[in-house]
Amino acid sequence: MLLRFAPRPAGARPFLSPTGRRLLAHVTNVESIPKLYHDMSMIRRMELAADNLYKQRKIRGFCHLSTGQEAVAVGIEHGITKHDKLITAYRSHGFTLMRGGTIKSIIGELLGRRDGISFGKGGSMHMFCESFFGGNGIVGANVPLGTGIAFAQQYNDAGNVTINLYGDGAANQGQVFESFNMAKLWNLPVIFGCENNKYGMGTSVERASAMTEYYKRGQYIPGLRVNGMDVLAVLAAIRHGKRFVQAGNGPLLYEYQTYRREEVQSERSNDPISNLKERLVDWGVMAEDEAKAIDKDVREKVNEEVSEAEKMPDPEPRLDVLFEDIYVRGSEPSQRREGPWARVTEVIGQAHTMLHRQGTVRIQTDVRITTRTDRQQAMNEPVEKVRSLMQSGG
Prior knowledge:
alpha/beta, Rossmann fold, 2 domains, five-stranded parallel beta sheet, two-stranded antiparallel sheet, globular, disordered N terminus, Pyruvate dehydrogenase E1 component subunit alpha, mitochondrial, EC 1.2.4.1, oxidoreductase, DH_E1
């Protein structure tokens, strides 16, 4: 499933021939193609900003960038709807933006801010929004989750599909093959996608996999290899796959061949954004001035939202914040909903709110904590003691 277009002869006028127009129309509306360039440029500029913040040590922990792999996220998003579901591994910034996140909320999350898309708790690997189920930090663990999402869609007769993505580093996981089996057994509406960027962390695929043709790994699931550096190829493939799956044919397996190591000169020349721009200008779909205007708009928008994200406040250091969004409401362990521990959390939360507003506070309370050795101690102490307990993990 690779799209190949002949270049325009030297000296010829830039125009899109009827044949070329019909070919592109099979992929998408010709007038909407510049939006592909805009979206890829937006992801690239955002990732470059994140890289800069990481080098300044403003972003701590992991920071998995998708620079060079923008065509996969953009091509897939333009081929599905918001009613379709998508789940991926930890290299998820671009998918988060395409699914509905904002640059400000994504950068805010990377900076650990309270107004980040996951309230500053998830960081680079755990971002979520409507119809996007992450961003998952455990290699391969999102594949069975995505299969379960597809099962839910089938069970509810939703008529939509699930895009279930993972990297070549996860392709050898047993849970991936178990998911293949369940998906085919029940003919679930799921498109599995292996983003093969040639390396799992620092290990080349040849050193880790006995067979590197990942699109053949499904055995009883049809597979296709897609040029993941060509957004038009990705778009054509996902639209074909969605029709196939929605027709009740069961799952599909795609291997997106892409690359993330930009320091390799041969891959720099295969950049998905510059190549698309060159072709669109060459075909007469987009003028050079229009491309420059898009570049300028993207640069200004990203700079503005990154600046706003850096001004976001840090989260308040409250104990109760640690337990937010952990359980579905009403499913918490009983000791979290009632009893002394719930009261302790409430008291500490109130104390820190007052400290944040007033600078000092004293607490009088009758809360008693039962330890594992059944010893009891009174919680009738000044806030300095409460803060000490929090700092020591108590």
